[in-house]
Amino acid sequence: MSDISISVDPPSATTQEQATTQAITPTKTQTDKLSPGGPQSSLFGHQRTPSMDFKELTKKDAQISLAMELDKLMKTMPEGRRQVVEQDFDGFKKLFAKFINETGPSVVWDRIDKLPQNAIQPYASLPHTEDKEAIRTMLDQLVVIKLNGGLGTSMGCSGPKSVIPVRSDLTFLDLTVQQIEYLNKRYDANVPLVLMNSFNTDEDTMKIIRKYSGFNVSIKTFNQSCYPRINKDSLTPVAKSCLTEDDIEAWYPPGHGDFYQAFANSGLLEEFVDQGKKHCFISNIDNLGATVDLNILNMCLNQNREFVMEVTDKTKADVKGGTLIQYEGKLRLLEAAQVPKEHEEDFKSVKKFNVFNTNNLWMSLPAIKRVVEENTLDMEIIVNPKQLDGGLNVLQLETAVGAAMKCFESASGICVPRSRFLPVKKTSDLLLVMSNLYSLDSGALIMSPKRMFPSTPLVKLGDNHFKKVSAFLSRFGSIPDLLELDHLTVSGDVTFGRGVSLRGTVIIIANHGDRIDIPAGAVLENKIVSGNLRILDH
């Protein structure tokens, strides 16, 4: 996400109100007095006096106005479909109330304490078991959850991102199903796969998962909430109807922090707890390194950990990633957007904050049930500004799943190998996972033993010619040999013939109007190629 800010600007108050978590229902008197234009108009009939706290009243006005607009929207929804929408709107009112009443930074920098000694355990210290019966017992207490709400539009694909082919014509979803089926077959276990879809991905995903009906995997799905985008100026919903198909731009899925409430609302959380399931492993479906790790599962169960976050060593490429801090006696996630400007360089320092969050999370299911039922979830709000196609500026209020870490008891980090963080966000990532750097083993990508060092190469491909998957694929006769590559930069109109090998640092730049064709069988080692190079068929 771009231009994200967590500390928000709605007016601060001299006497701050607690962010209400109750749905706000306007009284008839308030309704009669309210004017239709939202928080910016007529001050909603309040008789202002110099002694009244103008800012506090404005906050109340905004919440009352939002409640009225949501009530209007609810009336556009057919009776049989209102229950889900009511749940979503209740969740949005809570989020909006927190947003409108929040003042000041969510983290005071001087109150950050040094991490306790055992806050982050090294992966190498975890005990390992080969006992097949013990492993089956552990796996039978596990649920695997994949965050599947995103579309493939950033890579030029339509539909859910999880159905983009990433290796040997297998999609993210194919590989995930293969991994879990392998565990279930090998250990005679029953690990279910749960997909958290969004309204953007649900329909297509439901069609696609039919093909797995013969697999030894139970697949369940639920939808995260569907929240209304709000006008940046009036802070009221831009939607005129509850039917997303009427104006899909007016709605959004509110980030993966919505997982807890949506999972509970779906009934699946209670169902799994009743079945005796103890832990869930949550990760982004586009992180190909996020496989079930038996050593971490063993730690979670034996140490009664309610929340374990996988972190990995930070490099200069990861300076924007969230990190773990000790704050007010709790281990918690610190995101870049929470950092005061004067401390941004400290946050980016690999020495001061030497790990970052992979978003691979292990959580106790009974603990999730507890924090939802006791209403003790507390996640910082991510304010995500957007501009709609017509030019209207809107806000999306979101939360991140890892931000709830501080709400759980006995939380800890585990510093895992970099191989467990292999996200595919761009075609440059796709180039790596399609190459001979990796081989496939039961749906899991394994780094080739022929690679001399464990780090992956740094690859930058120009957006103009390589951003979309179809354009990217058309530029390679075959995926080059990358086993000895450290760094690759490609910019401009560049194509690669079959059997090319790239080693060391390779920079290829075709200037505007030029084209570079790397010939079949070429070996480029520590080379800079620029200008114009055409290979013509004859």
Structural account:
It is a single chain. This protein is an alpha/beta fold and 538 residues long. The protein is built from 14 helices and 26 strands. The strands form 8 sheets. An 8-stranded mixed β-sheet has the order 2-18-12-15-11-3-6-7, sandwiched between helices. A 4-stranded parallel β-sheet has the order 21-22-24-26. Strands 1-13-14 form a 3-stranded antiparallel β-sheet, with no helix packed on it. Helix 2 runs antiparallel to helix 3 (82-101) and helix 8 crosses helix 11 (365-373).
Describe how the helices and strands are arranged.
Elements: H1 28-33, H2 54-74, H3 82-101, E1 112-113, E2 120-122, H4 132-139, E3 142-148, E4 165-167, E5 170-171, H5 172-187, E6 193-197, H6 202-208, E7 219-223, E8 227-228, E9 230-231, E10 251-252, H7 259-266, H8 268-274, E11 279-284, H9 294-302, E12 307-313, E13 323-327, E14 330-334, H10 344-348, E15 355-364, H11 365-373, E16 382-387, E17 393-398, E18 411-415, H12 427-434, E19 438-441, E20 444-447, E21 458-461, H13 463-466, H14 469-474, E22 485-491, E23 494-496, E24 501-509, E25 516-518, E26 523-530
Parallel strand pairs: 2-18, 3-6, 3-11, 6-7, 12-18, 21-22, 22-24, 23-25, 24-26
Antiparallel strand pairs: 1-13, 4-5, 8-10, 9-17, 11-15, 12-15, 13-14, 16-17, 19-20
